[in-house]
Amino acid sequence: MRSFTVNLAALLLAVSTVPSIAAEKKSIDKKVRSESTEYAVSLAAQDGDLGHAFVIWNKGDSAANMTVQQVVGFYPQADKTKYEAVFGLSPGQIFDDSREKPDYVVIVSVNSDAYEKARTVFERWKSSGNYMLGFSDCTTFATEIGAAIGLNMPSRVFAPHPIEYIKKVGQSN
Fold it and tell me: What is the pTM of this model?
């Protein structure tokens, strides 16, 4: 019996430390023609105290028979715990969010031209941009990417947290 109790406790501990990869999802097809390569741009969000919005890029690679994925978010360059990073203006940076697990995702299938238009927005944010919570932040970054791929982007006024806003995007499209 002791062995069973120890094994059960170990199993519960192992299960509780594994992050959930299951997210609520909405899929939208914005493709206007068939292409040999598949493209998708997803707007994702995490719940939490402040929450976080980020973008997931997927591009099919038919030669390698696989999908290439990039996951990025926009952050203040200063230490995220610093007051000025949250409540002031600081330089912003694009950061690899591939280890982040979304709680809600809007997956948008697009054509190559929409994908490239969104990549242009991404490149602009990479090379310049200040971080200011509520005005030039992770949600603003996701909003501009969503607009570039033709999504209806609602106002943030009644959805100030990233997850609320990304869910509102899903409902609006």
Answer: 0.82
